Each structure stands twice: as C-alpha cells, then as structure tokens.
Amino acid sequence: MAAVTATTAGETTIREPGPLQRAGITLAHVLSHPLGAIGFVLVVLIVATALFAPWIAPYSPTAISVKERLADPSLSHLLGTDQLGRDLFSRVIVGTRTAMTVALTALSVSIAIALPLGLIAGYGPRWLDAIMILVFDSVSSLPMIMLGLAVVVLLGPGVSTVILVIVLYSVPSYARLVRTQTLSLKTRDFIKAEQVMNAGTPRILFRHLLPNVIGPLVILACLDISTVITLEAGLSFLGLGVKPQIPSWGNILSDGFAVIRNSAVPVIAGGAPLILATVGFTFFGEALRDALDPKLNPERKP
Amino acid sequence: MSATPALIEADRLSVQVPTGRLPFSQKAPLSILINVSLSIRPGEIVCMVGESGSGKTTFGRALLGLIKPSAGSITLDGAALPDFSNRSFRAVRRQAALLFQDPLSSFNPRQRIGAMIAEPRRIARSGSTRMQDIAALARQAGLSERLLARFPHALSGGQARRAAVARALSVVPRLIVADEPTAGLDVSIQGGVLNLFLDIREQHDTAFLLITHNLSVVRHVADRIVILYLGRVVESGPAAEILASPRHPYTRALLESEPVPDPARRRAEPPVIGEVPSIAARPPGCEFHTRCRHAQARCRSEAPRLADGPGDRQVACHFPLPEPQPAARGSLRLVSN
C-alpha cells in the first residue's frame, strides 16, 4: 500500500512503506478479522508461555512426590498431580515449550531442505524433476505412523527423532509447493530477462525465484504448526515421541489415559492446550494468508 | 550485401513446437518460423513487421536462444554458433539486450527498480553499481532517479519502458532486440522512446531489431524492413524502397491498412480479405493466396520462392507488384484515393 502525500509544491509523491510498516499493515489486516484476532491472541499466549515456561511453572515438571500422587486440583497444584505426584500445571506449561521447540525446529528444517529441492525440481532438467517427484510421492505415500515407527526403531525415541519424522513427512509436500510455484514463475518474463542477461543458475534460483516462492511456503508452514504439534503429541502418546520424563502434551495425555478411571483432569490438562494451539495457529495462519493474498485483498498490490 | 560485416546473421532459422502431448505422438510438429534469414549490421535498425501470430516475437526470442531453433544457423561476428545450447547462446547474449513487450513483467516484482537496472553490471561483474552511477544511467534513459527506489508495480507503462531501456544500457549492448517497444504508450511517449533508440545508436553504434506492427515506428526509424507472414519472410529490403513501392501484395496491404487521418482519402475497398489462416492448417501453394486480390491458379498450387532483386530487395511472390515507375506510382496513388 502506498501512501500519497501532498508536498508543498503541490505535486504528489508516492511513498513506499518500509518493512516494519508493511508488517504493521499485515498485522492490522489479521486483527481486523475476528477469527484472526482470536488466533493472534492464542499464538501470542502460547509463544509467551513457551518462552517463559521455567518462570511460570511453580514446580519442577519432573519432581516426583510419591505421597501427593493423583492429587485433585487445589490451590497448591492448580491441575492436581499425575500418578508420580508431578505437578500437572507445571508439566503443561513446560510441555508448551517442548511442543513449540519441536514444531518450530521441525518446520524450519523442513523449509530449509524443501526450498532448494523444490527450486531444483522446478527449474532443473525434466528428468531430474521426474526422479525427485517420484521420491517425494514415494515418501508421502507411506503412512505417517509407519514412517514414525520405522525411524524410532532405528534411532530410538527422543525429541530429535520426532523432529526427524516430522521433517521426513513435511519435506515432500513443501518441496512440491515450491516446485509448482517455480514451474509457473520460470516462464515469466523477469526470469527470461535474467537468462538473456546471462545470469547464472544459482543467481536465478536464489535471488529471483526464492524470494517469490518463500511467502506461500511460510504461510503453509504456519498453518502446519498445529498439525505438527498434534503429530508430536500423537507420537509421544504412542510412546514413539519424546521420552516419558520430558513433559509434553502427548506424554501428559498418555499418562492421563492410564488413570482416566480415577480422574479426567490429566487427560483434559493434556488435551486442552493441544486444542487451543491447533485452533490458534490455524486461525492465525488463515488470517495471515488472507492478509497477504493480493487477490483477496485488493488494496494491497503484489 | 554490403561491405560492413554483419554483427549477427540468422540463416534459414526455423522454430517448431511439438503438438502431441505424448512422446512418439503421430502429430506433426507445428512450424512457427520457417527458413527466416536475416542479417543485422552494426548500428543498423531492422524492423520486423507482421500481424499477430506471424512469428515476429518468436524470431526475436530464437535469436537470443530463449526459444530453441529447430533448424538453421546463427552467426555472430562471422563465427557460427556450434549448436543451440544455452552455453552457445551466452556469446550472443553478452552482446545483446532484450526489451520485452510488457516491460513491467520483465522486472522481478520483489526488487527495486534501481537494483534491477544494476543487475546486468552485477552479473557481468563490470561497471559501477554505485547509486549515483545507476542514477546517471536512469537519467540517460529519461527515467527520473527518484523512481529507482520504487518497486516495479509502482511505475507507469512509459516509466517501466524507460527503466527497461536503462537496464538494457547498463552494460552497453551491440544489439537491442525490442519487442513492440511502443505498445501501450501514448503517441508522444512513443516518439520519446524511438528518439532514445536513435540516440543510443548515435552514441554506441548499437544495432536494433525492432519487432512491431506499428508502421509509423517503421517509417520513423527503420533502415531495413523484413515482412513476415505465417512465419515466413515474404518481403525484405531497404525501408525507404519498401515503403515507397511494396512488391508483395501483402506488404502493400499492410501499408494500405494503416489508418489515414483524412476522411477525404477514405479507402474504397479493404486492403486484405478474410482472416489470417491458422499455422496448423497452412494453405497450399502461396500461403497468402487465400487473402490476395491478385491470386491466380499458379498461386494456389505452387509456393513462391524468396527471390533476390532488384538491389537489396527480396520478395516471395509469383506476380510481384510492378517496379517503382512513375506510371505505377501514379496508379498506386489512385488506389489509395
């Protein structure tokens, strides 16, 4: 959006907004949508919780207190305790950090791998594209849980294993998106112009194609954060994810499931933040996509 | 032709595109360009003229390797390109710049105009990319330097055209291929762009291949004209001679179809009849016979060859229009009256 300002001479000049201003305009668009505003608030809450988890949590999430096991919610234990007497509220708070760490690491690694792969598949020779698409399709055709099981058997459970599984799962679909974008961009005149200027392939790929494909990819990743958090919880619930002593929403759910006949509180304590995070990131991602899409937002030029 | 050696020469260049989607498909490929020969000498302005779909744009792109020719050869400074690989075309591209029909689309939407103008220098790693030098380059192309900080979408059509010219001049080319350089511009700005081209030629001895259907552009700047019809050259030669006395009926039709701003000189009959045939179903014989008012039996069965003469001229017609004689010119004027 360009602001038109009248100067003293009476002529009008058009000012380009700076990056900060641009971010502000985008945020205003996100907030103008009720679901976007809800999503934004939830995302801010979750991210802040993850950042300040050690200071918010009243107890150590791993401190075992046998005499207080399966305590009901009270003022000293807001959500009660689990079967080992660990404070559930603290585990949920620190679990937020686990979830965000896994999600953000896994998605950044996926983007970092998928971007060059997709650019090469889209811009490179046809035979290479055909091979890469075959590999992407083969990997995406494996059921997620099978893939997870195979990797866990090979490497053992842990945070890095969960991240690896998520990366293996997301790279093919991200790379496909980048490839499709690249295929349509490479026939555009500004890429042809680079070719006529004798620009090298790396320059065309990383200086001209990449900035034009990264936007949609980041939005897709933002929408995927909720899926990834659910995935981590699911793998942890099945005992394939992070180790049981590390607090994670999946582990809380899994532990709570074992004692669900005694109390529903642990299951709810593990499930509610999962639902809030999924809803928050989905709403925020969708609002962000709409705010950045020039077709849905006629005021903004591409 | 002339003593000056050609800067670039295309010899019987053809471009085909496959039609069948499957490999080994039985469908014959479509011929977009057939045996187009053209040589451009340093400092020469050659205009390629034809209707939409005549292959003008394809020729310009094939010359720079953006579309791979299927046959023929390209000679640069007397040395033929060994093949039509991207590597071979690098030699041509080092000497040439291309001005796209839509200048706006030829800029990366996420980069500022100043950066895009400096781009050829960055790629060639020669020439200054300092702000004041880029600003000087922009001024040379008639572009205000305060536009350099803008993104492409904030430019008008004329500004985008000038920005494209500034980028082309960034590393001074010996050949500029300009695809419809006046499309979408006001007449006053069209003149500005053409004068800019003449200045560039004056300063750097740059040759131009102007691809256009705008005959006033041709009249203004052309040294030589090549007329394309359905991807074939039908007539070529010095601009003044062709404009004064076209020999191919199609050329004359083109010239007559130019609107005349004078109601008293309104035409009695349309210069050409019918529609352009599809290149997927080329007419037999002379491909223009379906629209030619002079067509005879021979035209319908036998394709004319592009014959030399007189002078530098070439024409592909069994019954070329008469030589420029006073009587013939008089009758021509009668037709247009």
Automatic annotation (TrEMBL), chain A:
Membrane association type: Multi-pass membrane protein
Primary localisation category: membrane
Keyword field contains Glycoprotein: no
Localization: Cell membrane
TM region positions: 37-57, 99-124, 144-169, 213-240, 260-285
UniProt record, GO biological process: transmembrane transport
GO cellular component: plasma membrane
Pfam families (UniProt xref): BPD_transp_1, OppC_N
Entry-linked InterPro entries: BP-dependent_transpt_permease, MetI-like, MetI-like_sf, OppC_N
Domain ABC transmembrane type-1: 96-285
Keyword terms of this UniProt record: Cell membrane, Membrane, Transmembrane, Transmembrane helix, Transport
SUPFAM superfamilies cross-referenced by the UniProt entry: MetI-like (SSF161098)
Highest taxon in the source lineage: Bacteria
PANTHER family assigned to the protein according to its UniProt record, in alphabetical order: OLIGOPEPTIDE TRANSPORT SYSTEM PERMEASE PROTEIN APPC, PEPTIDE ABC TRANSPORTER PERMEASE PROTEIN
Protein family membership: Belongs to the binding-protein-dependent transport system permease family.
Name of the protein this chain belongs to: Peptide/nickel transport system permease protein
UniProtKB/TrEMBL annotation, chain B:
Membrane protein topology class: Peripheral membrane protein
Domain ABC transporter: residue ranges: 17-255
Alphabetical keyword list: ATP-binding, Nucleotide-binding, Transport
Subcellular location: Cell inner membrane
GO biological process: peptide transport; transmembrane transport
Record-level Gene Ontology MF annotations: ATP binding; ATP hydrolysis activity
Entry keyword annotation includes S-adenosyl-L-methionine: no
Pfam annotation, one family: oligo_HPY
GO cellular component terms attached to this protein's record: plasma membrane
Stated family: Belongs to the ABC transporter superfamily.
Protein name per UniProt: Peptide/nickel transport system ATP-binding protein
Lineage: Bacteria, Pseudomonadati, Pseudomonadota, Alphaproteobacteria, Hyphomicrobiales
